[in-house]
Amino acid sequence: MQTPARDGTHLLLEPGGAHRLQLLRAGPEGVTDAALIPLDADGFARLEAVYRLLARMHGRKIPPDSRLTHQRLRRAQLMLRAYDGRETGATHREIAQILYRLPPMTRDEWQSASQRYAVMALLRDARNMVQGGYRALLRPRR
Fold first, then answer.
1. Are 37 and 45 in contact (CB under 8 A)?
2. Are 139 and 49 in contact (CB under 8 A)?
3. For residue range 112-131, what is the model confidence (pLDDT) as tens digits?
4. Is 119 found in the same domain as 81?
5. Are residues 8 and 33 in the same domain?
6. Is residue 59 over pLDDT 60?
7. What's the pLDDT score for residue 18?
8. Angle at CA 106, nearest 5°, toward 105 and 108?
9. What total of structural domains would you count in the chain?
10. Domain end (from 57, 80, 97)
11. Do the domain assignments include residue 62?
12. Exposed/middle/buried for 102, CB within 10 Å: 0-12, 13-18, 19+?
């Protein structure tokens, strides 16, 4: 949502939640001259976002988003796949066999398999993500 100021000096972009980006206009209509960035703990993430916005506005190559590393993205994918499997009634063993391409195993083998504990951790973290923890995905680590 865009909200222009009455005096035409700035534009407030509100993508949702508690996030806002205030752009100052000092030139003619449509020319953006400045972005205000709060200097709080999330300031570094905001600076990176403004850098990517600036690159896009000027047709340059957009730098990669460093908030979500390849490993974090892969783990998030595994968590969501495990959660979806559990929601459809799959057992922990069935989830592990699909995610980790395991051969069929006996009950005793399953009880001591490292993948058993990995699936339990994935499901625990997935439940947290589904209950609102997903917001932490895009926050930089401090």
1. no
2. no
3. 999 999 999 999 999 999 99
4. yes
5. yes
6. yes
7. 56
8. 120
9. 2
10. 57
11. no
12. middle
64 SS3 class: coil
> Is residue 85 domain-shared with residue 131, that is, in the same domain?
yes
User: What integer pLDDT is reported at residue 115 of this predicted model?
Assistant: 96
* Count of residues making up the chain: 142
Torsion sign across C-alpha atoms 127, 131, 135, 141: negative
φ, ψ of residue 118 in degrees (nearest 5): -65, -40
| Helical residues (DSSP H) of 36-113, grouped into ranges | 43-57, 70-87, 92-100, 107-112
Q: Is the pLDDT of residue 36 over 80?
A: no
Q: State the residue range of the domain holding 89.
A: 70-138
Q: Give the pLDDT of residue 43.
A: 84
CB 42 within 8 A of CB 20: no
Within a domain: 64? no
Neighbour order of strands in the sheet with 34-36: 2-4, 10-16, 19-24, 34-36
62-114 confidence digits (pLDDT tens): 888 777 788 988 999 999 999 999 999 999 999 999 999 999 999 999 999 99
Token pair 């499997």 in the structure block, residue: 85
